[in-house]
Amino acid sequence: MSNDNIKIISNPDEVQKISRKWKTEGLTIGLVPTMGYLHEGHQSLIHKSCAQNDRTIVSVFVNPIQFAPGEDLATYPRDLDADAALCASEGADILFHPQPSDMYGEYFSTHVEVDDITQVLCGKTRPTHFKGVTTVVSKLFNISKADRAYFGEKDAQQLAVIKRMVEDLNFDIEITGCPIVREADGLAKSSRNKYLNPEERKAALVLSRSLSIGKQLLDNGERNANVIRNSITQEIKKEQLAEIDYVSIVDSVTLKDVDEKITAPVLTAIAVKIGSTRLIDNFSYTV
Length: 287
Ligand code: AMP
What we know:
By secondary structure, this protein is an alpha/beta fold. Helices cover 38% and strands 20% of the residues. It has helices spanning 12-24, 40-52, 80-90, 100-103, 122-125, 129-144, 156-168, 198-203, 205-219, 225-237; strands at 7-9, 29-34, 55-60, 94-96, 148-152, 174-178, 242-251, 266-274, 277-285. Helix 3 links the parallel strand 3 (55-60) and strand 4 (94-96). Helix 6 (129-144) packs across helix 7 and helix 9 (205-219) packs antiparallel against helix 10. 37% of the residues are buried. The model has no long low-confidence stretch (mean pLDDT 97). The structure holds adenosine monophosphate. Adenosine monophosphate (AMP) binds next to helix 2 and strand 5.
């Protein structure tokens, strides 16, 4: 794969200058925000952006402000050459790869914060995470001047938070959610899967397996959220290497817990630690 046709740029002003020029030429711009170490999940987003827009910008930035102390900021996997090759193979135009100091200058003091839906699910154990995400994504929207941005349903809460922010703050951008891409055996693709040793990799299948059980119950007509949540929980507990962070069935829009009868579209989302690696997975269901 050749990287000849893709520009790797670290300076936000330089990207903004190019995106401004593209806009004056009447070209549409797609943005795919990532933390790099790209896999087929990211690739599906980039593919869609390249198909739907005249130009595509992929950002690769391990954003320090969305990590809390003690999380995996320092060890997060990185491989910029492979990322550039994948972006080029899909026809992306710019790989934006800033350093933290390019994004957060000495006097940086402005944040974007979404209330309520950021405090549930992953927000319970990662209370500052989404503030970091919405702040960096706002910056990326301004830098890229994108008409459309692409996010994976793998991070369903993130997608809901970004949609909320775009609506609340009148960002002039269309948000597209893309389906979860999985390994052949069902494990949702994730850069963090690299942390798993062979034994943990096997154990990690409990995430998709337990969710399948929940979905099967819904398909068979079960509508009691407690019954479904308990079945998923019991399946995860059978796996010795797994430690549950949460198993939740929430309203798809408000992300509020559904405890009794399911009557509206729901998101069934789980976070499970396999060894020291925290993994997430989910499915959406419309009754
Ligand atoms: P990350 O690099 O993990 O921050 O992810 C960047 C984007 O890729 C996010 O919008 C993710 O939801 C999306 N993504 C990550 N893994 C997958 C996957 N397995 N399927 C679909 N989208 C994904």
